[in-house]
DNA sequence: AGCGATGTATACTGACCGGTATAGCTACTA
DNA sequence: TAGTAGCTATACCGGTCAGTATACATCGCT
């Protein structure tokens, strides 16, 4: 998380273009020369600011995670004061709008994990953190509904959630996220 | 599917080593020189047999798909003559043993999709075909149970299925596949 | 006997990989 | 006014990328 160190304008431009380049093409497929060219920055500047490509990859994931969390909380914690059951289902609405707007190629963190098999890669904590946050957030929402066995239910919803992202990106199930929300509703109502 | 053209011994060795190399390291991270060295084959032979790396990637996915389908059908269509409801749940047992034995880094097809954004890549049909087969197989199994709205239920089970693979590989949900099977049982029983 | 298929070994191409080096410019600030 | 942070421009490093070229050995088959 935390983008504390007040990026310079050139660094900011790098992180902006990298978001699209990495997500659209995959991480390995994008070289530092391409990043520098696309951001209108020299490689010297790029290495002065970030030190390595791996560090840029880490920041790419951390910033995407931050945007994603903002999106989710903005949808779920609308000022409308929805009840706890409704808030659980709003998670799937948040996923649906996110998929359409930003995620047509599937979860960026799952995709990054596919490309970064090294458990010690500096970007791995960002991947684990995003997944853990989604699971924890679901747990909190589920707990508020007073459902029986909230941890287990949250785990099931988490898997529906991740599966919906896969199904939507692979494009074999029409209306995937909406279907996942309906299934989530069933599981939820059965546990109340 | 279909590995018709009777591979030569050297070609067979290439396809054997490539399965492990591509799955463990990702596709971009494995060069043709590494493949040739690991298979004990010259690059000349490699290109005589396959023509391009992309063709090898396609065969890698097709052969993995074939093994996966054999695994699933062997588990689900055991000679024990289980009933249709039980056969649906056996799909998740098949996934559980597959994850432990062959899939610790998540679904090879989802991972490949992350690395191959080009819709015209020769390996893309293999990816789509695997996902379509799983969905179709679930649809058939669900239909046999006589459940209401079998297409919709199959779609939900498909998402639980894919989500369980993600959850297991990301390792935030203990007992992910077993939890997905329990959720699948709930959805199934609610539709009978 | 001869040919084609299958293979080895080695060397090469041009492009790109992540990362570094050197030199010079501008703007802010101590 | 001198220093420094941030930047551009260009050239370079060794290594690897996918793919090709050349030359030669071994085998089975007709």
Automatic annotation (TrEMBL), chains A, B:
One of its GO terms (molecular function) is DNA binding. Keywords: DNA-binding, Transcription, Transcription regulation. The keyword Plastid does not apply. Residues 8-68 form the HTH tetR-type domain. Residues 31-50 bind DNA. The keyword Secreted does not apply. This is AcrR family transcriptional regulator. It comes from Prauserella isguenensis.
